[in-house]
Design brief:
The chain is an alpha+beta fold. It has helices at about 10-25, 35-45, 55-70, 120-125, 135-140, 145-165, 170-180, 185-205; strands at about 30-35, 70-80, 85-90, 95-100, 115-120, 170, 210, 215. Helices cover about 45% and strands about 20% of the residues.
Length: about 220
Amino acid sequence: MRMPYPSGTIPRLFLFWLQREVIRTGNAKVDLGTSLGGFMRDIGLDPDTGGGKRSDAFRLKSQLPRIMKAEVMLDRTEKDGHIQTEAHLDLKVASSYRFAWSYKEPDQGNLFDSWILVKQELVDIFQRPVPIDARMIRALRGSSVGLDLVTILSYRAYSAVTKQRAVFLPYRGLMAQLGTGYSTVKDFKRFAINTQMKKITAIWRGLELDEVDGGIQI
């Protein structure tokens, strides 16, 4: 059966949380506990928003199977002189999982634990993390663009520090990478970048950004 793609903030918040747990415990099998409410609070959702279609519990119920069954293809091409190397990886989040929760009563406990057995390929990726300030994730948890942007900025800032040289991020490239519905770079910059960047820089005091022609320099 075909499933819709994972979308919105919940898959992003979930993957932030999952990576943290894999690194914290050192285990591929991640325990989600017996209470849906506790799990929701841990990833930044509110179990007290009711059971309707706009509630966090309902949205989580819709998104979790999509995340678990999604297949991601990663491709990389590198050139070194006359040698070209191409690499490909088919990736899934979990090899197996069990969710045993009450979505109508999130804080109700269950006799059975819920857990995820993370695929080893993803565990290997998780174990090479770039640090992201958890305060920014909390501040941006309502915006998919904001969460993606802070992820990209964290990675690029880390690269700028380790390589000791500035990194340029073109607005047009960011617009394509973030997958927004804006039709022009001007609208993307005005409504997506500027709005979310204010929240990020208010918390990330050490981030040095310069607006240059066509983009941002870290």
